[in-house]
Each structure stands twice: as C-alpha cells, then as structure tokens.
Design goal:
The protein is α/β, with parallel strands linked by helices. The protein contains 13 helices and 13 strands. The chain starts with a strand and ends with a helix.
C-alpha cells in the first residue's frame, strides 16, 4: 500500500500509487465512470494491507519550505478530491501575475444525498485544520475561510472548536443553504463578494479553492507519508438498502460498495456516479472508485421523471435558474442545429453543468447532457481551427523556402 506504480508525465499530472497490497496482475483498457476506455492497473489483492517502505513521514509543516510542501503533495498523487481531479500542486503554483491572497476551503457539499465532507468535518476536524496550515504556507497566505452551509451546524461547531484550540488563522463562514453553492465560482462570490470573470479561474480574483478531503490528504502525506490511496464515498439513494459513507481503497469496484451496503433493491432503475444533479448515469457497476468519486447513488421505484419527446415551451425558467446567468434555451437550440460559432458566443464554456436548468425545465429537455456534448463540439472546432492555422503556416514556410 502506498507504493508508486505509475509515474507522472508532465507538470499537470500526478503519480499513481497502489491502494492495496498484492501483485500487479495486468494493465488493461477498461471503461471509467465517463464511459471512456482508459488504462487500468489491476492488482490482485492479498488482503494483507502491507504498507510500502516508500511510505514515511516527511517532517513537520513548520520545518518544511513551501517548495518542499508542493513537491510532497505532487509525489503523493494529490488532486482535487471534490470531484474535479485537477492536480493540487498546479493550483499551488499560480502564474506570477495571479497573486493568491485568499484561501477558501470548500465544505459546502450542496448536492442532495452527499454527506462525505460533512462526516469528515465531524470526525477529522484537526487533520483538516493542519492541512489548511500546510496549504497556507505553500501559498504564503495569512488567512483562510471554510465555507460550510448552515444546515450543517454541528460540523461548523466541530471546526470552530478545533480552530479555537489551535488558534489557527482560519474562519468558518456559515453560508445560506442553496444549490449550487459548492461551485468554486459561487463559493468565491459568497465569501469574498467578488465575481470570477467569464472564462476565468478563482486565481483571477486572488482566490484559491480546495476541498475538505484534499486538505486531509495533504496533512496525511506530510505527517505519515501515505499518498492518496483511499476515498470516502457516499453510497445512498432510494435503491440502496443500507446507505452509508464508506472509506474504501481507490480502485474498489463499485459493485463491492453496493454489496457492503446491503445490495440494491430489485426495482432499482438508475445508478449515478456523483451527485443527483451533476453525476453521470452508469450502465454497469463494473467501474472502479476513482479519486474524484464522491458518491455512488442508486434510485428505485417512481423516481424516473423523463418523458419520451421533450419539448421547449420557451417559459424562460432555465434562464432564471442558471447560476452563471447564461441562456440555456438558446444554447440548447444552437447545439441541436449544429450552430457551433453561436454556441461559443453564448458562452457555453462557462456552463458548470450543475443541472439546475434541467431540473426546473417543465418540458424535461436534456439540457445538461446537451451542454456536455456542446462543449466538446466547441473544443473540437477550436482544435480544427488551430490545426488548420498551423498547416497554413507550415505551407507558407515551405513556400518561402522553395
């Protein structure tokens, strides 16, 4: 456990570590929770949980430099454990013109059913605060905020108790309970009052946002040397017999999680990786738990609200519901008609795929799904333009040489 089995390639990449002890059986192409075939390292588990000799404490946070902390985080395979999966060490290395002055820890967890971050606040508050101290040192930030929705009062109390004991420069900011408060742009605005510009990142307004579980993983990487090899997953929904929050090794088959929670009800019709609003429906349980897997939900009985022929009635409710102030009804039309330039001009790349528009739509249009495919079409068009420009440049250069 903890042995490095895959090296990072490039700066925006992290190593992979064994989450169980045993023998590497094979390296195969298998689908992940997005339906893409990717390389999987299959380990035959010996169930001994033998810890690798590579796992050793790295020292105290006080004794380490900012660069040493960043390197430890990278080598531990730390990524955004809230779901984004973006390498943490890259976030800790902002561009020179993007000075970070505000650290925000995301404890909002605003989607229904999800309670993993909430449980961690109740059970691992000291580790969260120590992890925050490490991030503050790495970013040279003097004050940080933890955004927690006000329906988690005992979680807020648990954090405040530890912060007072440690006299840490951390402020717990109770937030009004609303969706999608957990989006990093929404969280920045709720805490600082500043808006992230269209197409921009929180660093544009001097903010850096990290998840609760990410800070715990940072603390463990420094104090024990254990890389990211486990994940807390909410297993819930009307189709699960015994809903639980489960800490499991990364790579655990999802079917094992459901078995551990008593199995699924016979009338289960849908399985979702992630929350009910932003998660992805799955066609199989033969997928592994990844670093970004926050929940596995199963739904049963009469909860299927889809219709056979969805129709837009131009009511405008999707426009009212959009937290990014986009116009989903026009974006839907542009995507359906293949109007890629208009789709890009409508700022589809700012869509956070929160599902608020699809949830409110009385016509039951597949808005979020359409925007996922629309964003890919915009990316593909941009890639084609770039390739055409490079080809034209190369042809011009060859012409000059001739």
């Amino acid at each position: 456990v903890g042995q490095k089995i895959g090296e990072a390639v490039g700066f925006v990449s992290v190593p992979v570590h064994a989450s169980v002890s045993g023998i590497v059986k094979e390296i195969v192409q298998k689908p992940n929770n997005l339906g893409k075939n990717v390389e999987h390292i299959v380990i035959e588990n010996d169930f001994q949980d033998e810890v690798s000799d590579q796992v050793a404490p790295k020292g105290s946070i006080e004794s380490l430099t900012a660069e040493e902390i960043k390197n430890i985080i990278k080598e531990a395979g730390n990524v955004g454990l809230g779901g984004a999966g973006f390498p943490t060490h890259v976030k800790l290395s902002p561009q020179a013109d993007k000075k970070i002055n505000t650290l925000i820890i995301n404890g909002a967890e605003c989607e229904p059913f999800l309670t993993a971050d909430y449980r961690m606040m109740l059970e691992h508050a000291p580790e969260i605060v120590e992890g925050i101290n490490a991030v503050m040192k790495a970013l040279d930030v003097k004050l940080s905020f933890i955004g927690v929705e006000d329906n988690k009062q005992n979680g807020i109390d648990a954090m405040n108790k530890v912060i007072a004991e440690q006299k840490a420069p951390v402020v717990v900011e109770p937030l009004r309970c609303r969706y999608p408060q957990g989006g990093e742009k929404q969280l920045c605005q709720a805490i600082t009052g500043k808006q992230v510009p269209p197409g921009g990142l929180p660093s544009a307004i001097g903010c850096a946002v990290f998840n609760i579980n990410t800070t715990i993983a940072i603390f463990r990487a420094i104090t024990t040397g254990m890389p990211v090899v486990s994940k807390v997953v909410t297993v819930s929904g009307s189709g699960v017999i015994e809903p639980k929050n489960v800490e499991c090794p990364i790579g655990t088959p999802v079917s094992c999680l459901f078995d551990y929670c008593g199995g699924l009800k016979d009338e289960t019709f849908k399985i979702i990786a992630g929350g009910p609003m932003m998660g992805m429906a799955q066609y199989t349980c033969d997928i592994p738990v990844a670093k970004g897997t926050g929940a596995m939900l199963a739904f049963a009985a009469d909860e299927d609200k889809t219709v056979e022929n969805p129709t837009c009635i131009r009511c405008g409710r999707c426009v009212e519901a959009c937290p990014v102030h986009l116009e989903p009804l026009y974006m839907y039309m542009y995507e359906q008609k293949g109007m890629i330039e208009e789709l890009e001009a409508a700022n589809i790349m700012d869509c956070m795929e929160c599902g608020a528009c699809a949830y409110i739509c009385p016509g039951r249009l597949h808005l979020t799904q359409t925007f996922k495919t629309g964003k890919q079409k915009v990316k593909d068009a941009a890639a084609k333009r770039k390739a055409a420009a490079e080809a034209a440049k190369a042809a011009e250069a060859a012409k000059k040489e001739a």
